[in-house]
């Protein structure tokens, strides 16, 4: 192998790094514009790669959007349930409220919930988008089931808890409140969002 070839091989970014940079650029683009107004070309340029790099790593804009939203979801829900586990070890703490407060911070912090609503509306009329949306929500529900299983075990929740129902309830409640707060914050203020999520988590962990 020549020195030039070796240099090119060493300087070529790893696939994981490419994906991370593209996801970051896409998250910023989706935060600033609607889903329909964001182009793969613009995302690729912002990330410093060719459009082909986006397609080879994600398949297209729908799959890239799903990857961005999945990462945001994991950070939001994983962080919230970690707060619940931490609260277990603090005497007098209210774990359901700790989860609700953490989730509320995620719900009110940015435009992604409204973007998901836009994506869902487009998916209702486009079979390709519908398949991506369905796969995204299924993965999120399964991920949430596993996270809730760990929390339930730590809290000593009875075996009768249906994790699929609990995960679906929490997922749809968070999604609905996020969209409502994004579009009508006066009608769905942060304190009301937190109160609703506290009731939901209290019911799940009771």
From TrEMBL:
<dbReference type="InterPro" id="IPR001647">
    <property type="entry name" value="HTH_TetR"/>
</dbReference>
<dbReference type="InterPro" id="IPR009057">
    <property type="entry name" value="Homeodomain-like_sf"/>
</dbReference>
<dbReference type="InterPro" id="IPR050109">
    <property type="entry name" value="HTH-type_TetR-like_transc_reg"/>
</dbReference>
<feature type="domain" description="HTH tetR-type">
    <location>
        <begin position="16"/>
        <end position="76"/>
    </location>
</feature>
<dbReference type="InterPro" id="IPR039538">
    <property type="entry name" value="BetI_C"/>
</dbReference>
<keyword id="KW-0678">Repressor</keyword>
<dbReference type="InterPro" id="IPR036271">
    <property type="entry name" value="Tet_transcr_reg_TetR-rel_C_sf"/>
</dbReference>
<dbReference type="Pfam" id="PF00440">
    <property type="entry name" value="TetR_N"/>
</dbReference>
<keyword id="KW-0238">DNA-binding</keyword>
<keyword id="KW-0804">Transcription</keyword>
<dbReference type="GO" id="GO:0003700">
    <property type="term" value="F:DNA-binding transcription factor activity"/>
</dbReference>
<keyword id="KW-0805">Transcription regulation</keyword>
<protein>
    <submittedName>
        <fullName>DNA-binding transcriptional regulator, AcrR family</fullName>
    </submittedName>
</protein>
<dbReference type="Pfam" id="PF13977">
    <property type="entry name" value="TetR_C_6"/>
</dbReference>
<dbReference type="GO" id="GO:0000976">
    <property type="term" value="F:transcription cis-regulatory region binding"/>
</dbReference>
<feature type="DNA-binding region" description="H-T-H motif">
    <location>
        <begin position="39"/>
        <end position="58"/>
    </location>
</feature>
């Amino acid at each position: 192998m020549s020195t030039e070839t070796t240099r090119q091989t060493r300087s070529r970014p790893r696939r994981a790094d490419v994906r991370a940079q593209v996801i970051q650029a896409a998250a910023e683009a989706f935060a600033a514009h609607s889903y329909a107004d964001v182009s793969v070309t613009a995302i690729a340029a912002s990330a410093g790669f060719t459009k082909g790099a986006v397609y080879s790593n994600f398949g297209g804009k729908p799959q890239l959007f799903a990857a961005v939203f999945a990462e945001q979801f994991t950070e939001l829900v994983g962080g919230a349930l970690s707060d619940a586990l931490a609260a277990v070890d603090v005497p007098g703490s209210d774990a359901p409220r700790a989860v609700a407060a953490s989730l509320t911070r995620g719900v009110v912090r940015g435009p992604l919930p409204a973007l998901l609503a836009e994506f869902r509306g487009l998916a209702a009329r486009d079979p390709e988008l519908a398949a991506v949306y369905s796969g995204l929500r299924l993965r999120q529900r399964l991920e949430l089931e596993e996270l809730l299983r760990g929390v339930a075990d730590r809290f000593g929740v009875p075996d009768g808890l249906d994790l699929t129902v609990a995960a679906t309830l929490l997922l749809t409640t968070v999604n609905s409140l996020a969209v409502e707060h994004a579009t009508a914050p006066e009608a769905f203020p942060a304190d009301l969002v937190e109160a609703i999520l506290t009731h939901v988590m209290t019911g799940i962990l009771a």
